[in-house]
Give the backbone structure.
Amino acid sequence: MSAADLMAALFFADMRFDPKNPQHPLADRLIMSKGHAAPLLYAMWAEAGFIPRERLTDLRLFSSNLEGHPTPRLPFVDVATGSLGQGLAAGVGCALNARRIGSDYRTYVLMGDGETAEGSVWEAAASAHFFKLDSLCAILDINALGQSRATELAHDLETYRVRWSAFGWHVIAIDGHDLPQILDAYKEARATKGRPTIILARTLKGKGVTFTEGLPNWHGKALSKEQMEKAFEELNRQLAPDGNEVPKIPAPPAAPPPEAAAEMAVPQFKLGDQIATREAYGSAIAKLGAVDPRVVALDADVKNSTFSDKFEAAHPERFYQFFIAEQVMVGAAMGLAARGAIPFPSTFAAFFTRAADFIRMAAISGVNIKLAGSHAGVSIGEDGPSQMALEDFAMATAQPNFVALYPSDAVSTERLVGEAAAHQGPVYIRTSRPKTPVIYDNSEKFPIGGLKVVRKSDKDTATVIGAGVTLFEALKAHDELKSKGISIRVIDLYSVQPVDAASLIEAGKATGRLITVEDHYISGGLGDAVARAVAPAGLTVTRLAVPEIPRSGKPDELLDKFGISARHIVSAVTG
Amino acid sequence: MSAADLMAALFFADMRFDPKNPQHPLADRLIMSKGHAAPLLYAMWAEAGFIPRERLTDLRLFSSNLEGHPTPRLPFVDVATGSLGQGLAAGVGCALNARRIGSDYRTYVLMGDGETAEGSVWEAAASAHFFKLDSLCAILDINALGQSRATELAHDLETYRVRWSAFGWHVIAIDGHDLPQILDAYKEARATKGRPTIILARTLKGKGVTFTEGLPNWHGKALSKEQMEKAFEELNRQLAPDGNEVPKIPAPPAAPPPEAAAEMAVPQFKLGDQIATREAYGSAIAKLGAVDPRVVALDADVKNSTFSDKFEAAHPERFYQFFIAEQVMVGAAMGLAARGAIPFPSTFAAFFTRAADFIRMAAISGVNIKLAGSHAGVSIGEDGPSQMALEDFAMATAQPNFVALYPSDAVSTERLVGEAAAHQGPVYIRTSRPKTPVIYDNSEKFPIGGLKVVRKSDKDTATVIGAGVTLFEALKAHDELKSKGISIRVIDLYSVQPVDAASLIEAGKATGRLITVEDHYISGGLGDAVARAVAPAGLTVTRLAVPEIPRSGKPDELLDKFGISARHIVSAVTG
């Protein structure tokens, strides 16, 4: 109710969209960052004719897509909201996409005042200013009430003004229930060039009903039947007569033909060459970007470590720098993906945990993002535990619709980047810091959900399953055991989720034992993924993984000290 | 080198501490938020006499605690840094602790300019202003160079000034290589009352060496031997002769006696009463707070949902409101814990993912924090997936030194809150939204690492392992199966990490089958924890867990639709 006037004016007097096709590629976007205002959003689309009015009362029923907070199960929702402070970052992505496709569509984000306490909002504010996103307009519904108490700044619009101005935004402060002021603000925002605009709207929660207006303790609470009747009575007195007439909404330009990709050429590596998978990742996305205009890369000031600077060099106009701000990087990727781009945000894998809640919401949104985390595991060496991702697979594989990939050499890296782009949905790719030899022929393919049996004989007495740096430890162990007359099977589990259960079970049955070895903590990584896959066949897994918080040291030394080197594999096989 | 002058002046002309006892409870604190400046920190403590000078060259060796980034393995490090943007939040916690214990110790935080792109910095900025933390002084080393390029704002001190002023800080802008200016700034900060101070220091990266000063591409790069010799030559010319004299550092007041806790009275619940574990959590921390002055509670504007408002009502002076800003809440908890408090930050379990990187660093720090996440799983119902924590155990149990607890009724909740407080180290407690009956006698104890066998007979043909809401589904299934003449064992796995492997193996062997049922996604939860525990005995686990992204609906409906209701347990047992 605090935002109803703001939204009514936006939707029916400012925005350009197609009420019959909410996903029109050139239509203006509206992201309801304060997702708990979902009933307002649904009412707007009902008024626009997209939702039958009588369906509005299905709100929050299992049988309805009108969920408690908006999700992209509804075609007018680009990204799921309900975790506060994410919408503006997604809006940055939507606005960057407009620039990418050369459209003048505008992006609007409705935020609650309480959610501006989230740091992610200020990351997005800084980025929107850096990118000079004048097609982006935030609307701040300053109703002064959080869930449990007054917000920190209450109705202190001046402090809001000073803060947003300090972050380079054009600021318009209005009474959020005064329609002429609201309409003027949208007009002024549209005319503002070179920077984003925020409309600071002083509002009242529960506006329009005497016993709720401006009062606390109504957050998320239903009215009694009696209260509801009184509320309707009061509201009806304030409404113009309802003619069931759908307002005239400006149509967007005709939709362009869908963007298409050409096929990537086969990899061009030489067997035995030493190339870090992070470096192969960089060249792969640059190569991919050349054949697919939808591909974009996003960085958080580590492009020279993740090698995303190779993409920047090749496609500077599709490379976005977010400085050290992982939340807005992932949030913007969500927005870009929702509007048809194929974004590859990359940073140290450890620092994707900074954006874990965005990744959770990306999963709920089902958006087509491709996260690439480098510097995984203790094999990074001397920089120490703060830089080592040892829980990234736990984070990514927890989400049931995430694909999780883990290449070991340059060929598989390039192939998996291609697979990631071709897959519709969220993907996580893990790369490593140390150089590793090219072991696959350039013609090899790496379908998602597959694995590679890289060593095999009829006499194998165990199967060792590794990926990334540990695959090479497994190969060393293989050779050492072979010299002692012991044969083992070695599997490269490049697809950690989904996992090739049938092949793992087959190997387990053929060799009697399954041993996983991973540069990851023991929970949520390869070992658990394999164990889940083979449990239905009654098979168990012996897990070699990093058992404790590690420390600085040389990469090889750390692999050994934390129990995942060839020596430990040999012990596990022979022990 | 950009921060060396700032730090030398701080450490040897401003701070009050005991070079022989860095953990002195009343000593001023220094948090090196830009953890990559670790060599500077180590050099300072060597100069102060705590580290033998000859040990400085052990930097980054496995045998040394002088790691690539600082960790609390070194007694002068309160919280691990190296994931940028966390130090100021920890500093807020250190400063709040000074207030808690009535000390005038000061807290200093050295930040890099690049890290102020992290939203968490602005969460901390807003909180420090809200709490009027005039004992907190941030020092911003504005060297204008990030890792991969110039920072967004370069040497634009004016924009920094406007932003920090907008967030309510006292701002002092100086030349960070001018010692008189630096000393004056510390003096001014110390004299500033009612708000925190930030010193904006214009600096040059690689200061003092002609071929590095102010130049890019030296981040994290070692000099060649020749370059090093040249650098030493240049630096030596600029130094005063070295007398190996330890500067005179002001001593803190005598340390107070350690704080102590009395024992909590036994729970006072009535069997069969319906109480949500989140509510029992609220009353438990309030009760705990009455017997232990170290206990504090932190909220992110959901105190009326998590019931932490019960703590606020009882102990308002130890209740800290962070509004909707989970990162600073957890970061401040880290700082409080590092200085002797026992902080219980609480929010919806789903929203702890917002602070996942802080939780990762809390694990590396080994700090004594007690995270409490409410509203776990699909059992929250209509609010939908954005509010449902289904990956929280994956996040918490990935950290090898985290304890993860999951009470099912009010008695076990209160007992586990007590256990969490008594345990030294990080703990995660998961509570639920729906009311559940009290099933345990008030005298029951719940040691960390234990479990409860709640149904058992000699004829059990399977063991069903649940916790939280699914324990009650298991009990329903037990009764239904019993009426059909089938006996099952039912285990309450209240301690998910560490897990009681011996009892699980015993139950598995006795009953032939282990079935886990959890209101969590399949990866990283109870099923994986049990599977890891029983694998060494050759046992496998059948897992019932939420298999896909859920949606809004009624709690019971969702438990059933997503495969974790009594009906599914019965099928798993009989199928």
Observations:
- The first strand of chain B starts at residue 29 and ends at 32.
- Chain B touches chain A through 110 residues (CB under 8 Å).
- The mean pLDDT of chain B is 97.
